[in-house]
Structure formats: C-alpha cells, structure tokens
Amino acid sequence: DVSSLAGLAYLIFLAFIVLRLFRRPAQGSLEYIVAGRRLTLPAFTASLVTTWYGGILGVGEYTFSYGVSNWLVFGVPYYLYAGVFALFLAARARRSEVLTVPDLLERRFGRPAALVAAAVLFVMTAPAAYVLMLGVLVNFALGWPLWLGVATGTALSIAYVFRGGLRAVVATDVVQFFLMFLAFAVLVPVCVAKFGGIGFLKEALPAGHLEWDGGLGFQAIAVWYFIALSTLVEPAFYQRCYAARDEGVAKKGIAAAIAFWICFDFLTTTAGLYARAVLPDLADPVQAFPALAAAVLPGFWQGVFTVGLLATIMSTVDSYAFIGSVTLGRDLIGRWRGRADEENLTLVRWSLVATAVVAVTLALVSGSVIELWKTLGSVGTPVLLLPLILAHGRREVAGGRMVAAMVLAGATSLGWLVAGGGNPFLGVEAIFPGLAVSVVILGGMFLRRAS
Questions:
Q1: Mean per-residue pLDDT for 251-264?
Q2: CB neighbours of residue 20 within 10 Å
C-alpha cells in the first residue's frame, strides 16, 4: 500500500545518504564528536527538537491509556528543566570547552568519577526504547517481523553516523524536523474535520482521560517531575551545547526548542485522544498513532504520516546511538586504558556497532517503551544529577566521596526497583531513595562545612 511504499522510500533515502552524502569521514575528535563547534542557531534548534522527541509511539501509548495527563507527564516537567538548563547550564557547558560529560567530571573530580558516569551514561543513552518503537512502526508499515524492523531501522540509523559523526546527525535532523511536524499538522485537522472537536472527545472518551491525572493519582504524576530531572544530566543537551558556535546559540537554541516542543505536544496529545475515541478496542496502544492515521487519512497522506513517524524516531536513534558510541569507545574504554584524549576514532566508530547491538537486544527483551524510560531515568538520574550540578560550581569535592555518592545512589535505586519487582517498593518510587542517598552524602558535607 501507499504507506508501505512511503516507508520504504524513506529507508532508501537514508541509504542514499549513507552512500553519497557522507562518503568523506569526519576528521579528528573535534569534528566527529562536536562538529567542529560550528552549530548555528537553526541547526542547533532543529537537531535538539528532533533528538529529544523520538519517543513518539510512547507518547501515543500513554495518551491512549491515560489521556491529557500525558501533557503533565511528558510535557510540563521537561519544559521546566529544559528552561533551567538554558538559564543556568548552557553557557557554562559551552565555556567548558570539553567534548563530553565524563570529560567535565574528570576535570573536577578525577578519573574514577568519570568512569562511573560513563558507564551509567552508556546504559542511559543506548536507544533501546526508540529502537523498539522503530521496530513496531516498521512492522506496522511494512509488515516485517519485529526483529527485522528493529535491526534494519537501527542499521540505517547508524550507518551515516559511522562516518560523519555529529555533522551527519545534524544534517539529517534538519530534514526530519520538518517531516515530524508535517505528519501531525496533517493528522489532527483531518480528525477535527471528520469527527468534531472537544464535544466529540468529551462524549467518546472515558471520563478519566480528561482528568489531570488520568485516574492514576498524585504520586504517579509527581514521580515524572523527578525523573524529568534527568534533563539536567541529558547528554544530548550537553553535546549540542559543546558543539554550538557560541554561548548565545546554546541558550537561545534551547529556548526555541521548548517553544517547538510545546506546539508538538499539543498536536500529539490531541492525536492520542482521537486515537482512543475512534479506536477504543485497539489491542496495542503503542500503535495508537499509526492505527489512527490508517483509519482516517487517505493513501498519500498515510504515506506522509508514516514517513513523519519514521523520521521522528530515527532522528533520536541516530543521536543517542552516536552519544552511546562516544561514551563507550572514548569515555569508558579509552579512559580506562588511559587514552581518552588520544585520536582513536576507529574505536569510537566500532563502539557505535556495539551500542546498536545493546539497544536492539534490550528492545527485543523489553515490552514497554514507557517502562524503559522510567527504569533508566530512575536509576541514572540519582547517579548524575548532583555531581553534574556541582561540576559547574566552585566548591571542591573529594573524588572518593563523589564516586561513593554516585555508586551508592545508583545501587540504592536499582535495589529498590528489584525489591519492588519493577513497581514502587513500599509505595515509594525508586528514584526517591537514590536521590536521598546522593543528597545525604554530598549535601551533608556542605552542611558540616557551614557549621
């Protein structure tokens, strides 16, 4: 059908990019990792918007299941912390002149802290959730088995990055930025015209879908405001800031991205509500958006929408796979061997393949996009949040204390998750005890100094 042909055409387009546009590999770490620090405001903004919105099917899954609370879970807290990042961290990150987050932590707290951070960042950035969504979409559009869709989509997402680095990521992100907005700018108006507006939704949706918490209760919503603290340790934010032409581009680019995310969230949340109203018996909520498009759009526009979804997901797969490869090859293996600062792009490039294999494996083992997000955010944020905040300050912290805080915070959150079998143990989400341990170890030191 048209949707399948459009999806196949987009995959061919990416193959063309691999074969033609990026034949010349990036030269040197500065060019490969941070694009020579030359990102302009439009490129910075488009790349950040697309990179941070790859969880499109997860947004559809959540909205289909819990309604407008999607905006309070995946919208508001992330706008808030992105704004904090723009105001307080973006310019400092650009001034630091480092290439990666572990570089910053090694400069302030020593190599062991950098190694712990690199290990955690690698797990957090391996794009398993996005690879899973990619496989679901390819399966829906082309009818391929899930494993084949996951493997093929991932391979095409990393092939041009293998040679071109961040330069290749940003170049494709600019195209994908327009495609993702076009997809939902078509779908939502068609739904309104065909079914009606808010009156139709009020009548067709379960009552809880228009309540602020989706019927889940306060803690289920509030926990995401702590998980969203991961924005302040988000490696994609730091990498784009390191690559920006200057401090102004870094700050203004994040502010512009927030405005685009607000617009896009309005479109996606609305589309998710229509999916539940029009297709209440849909077996798999992850397929809410593609199923809605198949039900309401004519053939050509179904194809446009499919391409838009593919672009949205693949723009995140390539970015996080690239960050994961740099983290594994340079920041973890290279730093462990004492050669993080050497030009060893061959190791980084082949680490891209290893990152893809890890992501594909996790995607095929896991069944839920949202659970992947929640688990990784609950463990990784307590490890990195306070260390990165302190890294931008002037207070001295002993490297041993910092490593202890990072390891114990992560172990506490992970143990809490295991004790609860993936659910809140003793009614408490895993992120909270991990953050508490970090605050006690690092915050207690400053209290003693003040007294």
A1: 97
A2: 9
What does the pLDDT look like over 36-58, one tens digit per residue? 999 999 999 999 999 988 778 88
**Lookup: tokens for 169:** 């990521």
Q: How far is CA 411 from CA 167, 382, 405, 418, in A?
A: 36, 10, 10, 10
Give the CA angle between residues 260, 100, 78 to the nearest 5°. Answer: 30
Give the burial string for 61-83 (b: 16+ CB within 10 Å, else e).
bbbbbbbbbbbbbbbbbbbebbe
Non-local CB neighbours of 448 within 8 Å, separated by 6+ positions? none
Extended beta strands in 252-292, E state: none
Annotate 214-246 with DSSP letters as a single string.
TTS-HHHHHHHHHHGGGGGG-HHHHHHHHHBSS
Q: What would the two tokens of residue 418 be? A: 């295991």
Q: What is the mean pLDDT of residues 381-407?
A: 89
Confidence label for 24 from pLDDT (cuts 50, 70 and 90): low
Specify which residues 244 forms β-bridges with.
Answer: 39
Angle between helices 299-326 and 146-164 (to 10 degrees): 60
Average pLDDT over residues 151-171: 84
Contact 112, 399 (CB under 8 A): yes
Contacts of 65 (CB under 8 A, 6+ apart): 214, 285
Look at residue 23 and tell me whether its pLDDT is greater than 80: no
| Rounded Cα–Cα distance for residues 78 and 254 (Å) | 12
Which regions of 180-318 does DSSP assign to beta strands (E)? none
CA 248 – CA 170 distance, rounded (Å): 19
